[in-house]
Amino acid sequence: TAAHRYYAIKKGSQSKRLIDYRLDELKEGDYVRVEPSPLWQSNPEEYLEGLKSGILLGDGSYTEYAMSHNTVKIASSTDDVEFNQNIKELFGVDKFRKDDLQSGSKSMNMILSGGRQIIQQLQLTPSYSHEKTFEITKISSRDKALGFIDGLLATDGDILLRSNHPQIRFVTSSQKLAQNIRRLLLMLGCHGRIFSSFIDDGGWIGERKIVRKHRKYQIIVSGEGAGRLARMSQLEKISPIKGKKMKELRKEWLTTGNTWKA
Q1: Element (H, E) at 65
Q2: C-alpha R_g of the chain
């Protein structure tokens, strides 16, 4: 109700002090304090299931059209040989058809047979990239939550170490997925902030021009949250290149601070 009260920081304020406000006193753009909601239940067997889901949410193509052909495509690069092999071993090498290579480009698709069964087993819904999401209430262990996060990082994420404030970043065109990534992070005791933008940065894949039609959402984890996630992550097992960056963040950077607000 309007009488509920929240500790918040008003939009435009430079202070880190939280003030007690009624709900009807808060406006769009104000910052409300966020609390982690960690999962304590552990089930290591669920990590791999979460990892598969995260990979498909990141770079998988499982539209209704793909389902009509009973396939799932996973986008990658021909340069990332070890990552591609790890993907195939994770899902089962014998389930993959011949790779779909793009003429004049390093872009490629790994094609999984039995796509409809895979999507049903992982409890995902056929959708376009900007529609992707998953049912957050079905995640009951921190291992599964971490698997989702590592899979998303391996595909549509990055570890940024070039500034004095290292960050872990996820990128998606789905607002619902961005919100659920943030919720996953809270389950792991980490805080991610969502930033949205619309820039038609386009580009080309071979002879095909890329036209941006949807907003881009970035979920940024920094400070103590980045350090905590780096200590938990098993990213190097699926993506050695990004895993190496995560290890560097864990060992060589002092990750402190970060205001818990959203």
Answers
A1: helix 64-68
A2: 19
